[in-house]
Input
Amino acid sequence: MEILIWGGAALSLLGVAGLVWCIVLGVKARKSGLPDDVVRKNLQRVVAINLGALAVSFFGLMLVIVGVILK
Output
């Protein structure tokens, strides 16, 4: 069960790193000075990555909870 806890923690940290990366990409897209259509397209891609990072973080936290319950 230790593996579930540590694996879940690592997965959660990976998801949080993905969220930080999305923030950086969003700030870069807004400050780029590109036309609105291009910025909107870039931000739509960032939203998709953001949802993926949230899902990874969620599954990591679920693994931690399952590991703690089974321990």
